[in-house]
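User: Run a structure prediction on this.
Assistant: Running it now.
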Amino acid sequence: MLFTFKTVIEPKAGHVTLFKVMSGEVKEGTDLVNDNTGATERLNQLFIVDGKERKPVEKLAAGDIGGTIKLKDTSTAHTLHAPGKSVKLQAIAFPEPRLRQVIRATDQKLEEKLHAALLEIQKEDPTIVLTYSRETAQQLIGAQGELHLSLLKWKLNHHYKVDCEFASPRIPYRETIRKSAAASYRHKKQTGGSGQFGEVHLKIDPWYEGMPEPTGHSLRGKEEHDLPTGGKLVFYNCIVGGVIDNKFMPSILKGVMEKMDRGPLTGSPARDIRVIVHDGKMHPVDSNDISFKIAGLQAFREAFNNADPQLMEPIQELEVRVPADLMGDVMTDLQGRRSIVMGVDSSGRYQVIRTLTPLAELDRYSTTLRSLTQGRGTYSERFHAYQPVPNELQHKLVSSHKEEEVAA
């Protein structure tokens, strides 16, 4: 019975599979069955690895770690055993990534080649986690630390001939409002033929669960939309007197949703807003769907900017395990990262610090923690909630976004 894991040592010569014999013994030329795939594999060569050298052996016994080549259907953590038996060992619990970075090819033409190489590497090393963030439109690579990333970059450069670079990922902020505001917008465009005309008057409010229905308006329709990025949009049709034909309401909603997808502050998704469309105008010839979509979008943008807009940031629950004698340095560093300490527990010679820390402050935290604790500190994190960004930081982020828009 074999417990195998695969790693590329010499790509031109094919894959080298390293394995540990868990029971019995295995000899060269033995046929074994992969319990995970059902495929039969022949061990054409047996050897042990001594540095960069391979030393052939006739057999390996329980407890030995050896290697073979050219296994076609065996991947990391698969179990091989003698024919006629069924044995599957418990899968390895691989650690979660400690460091996430954006990865991209220095030459954009090689992006597809880079992606194919990363998928191949991920099969060999499951601690490399490849994901794509639709929200930030970035390819992310998860690794165990700086050294892990350096080895990955070396392998991509030398084995796959793809030069790549890393960068800090964007933070998935959210935008919302803190007070009510009203706005109107008239879209009017005249061309040689039929023109465009649409006018929308609307009001927006911060939405919360259990919010009472709006008063002072005649409610003709209500739509609740759970947003894919979290939060909700509640859209009310309060048009009276037919000043806007009911057929144009979906276009107004579409314009509002489009602006919510890329909020006015930083281009981040907006959430938890109630929109009440209560007045407007249309033209019997020039009014159409695109006119009311633009009018709805621009009216919503103006109202949003007047409604005390607030940028929200993701907050992580952080649990840091450090030696007791080094806790002071770690605590000082965490406080510098805008952390709120929720508690400290003892665990033998270690202290476990529990905090709420903004995700924006955790870039390359694994490297800092390793430096502060001589490699003895560990941590885990998980998403907690979205909370308001401090005013000074919000102003900086909004200004930076405006500069990027002007540059573009």
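Residues 289-305 form the longest helix (17 residues).
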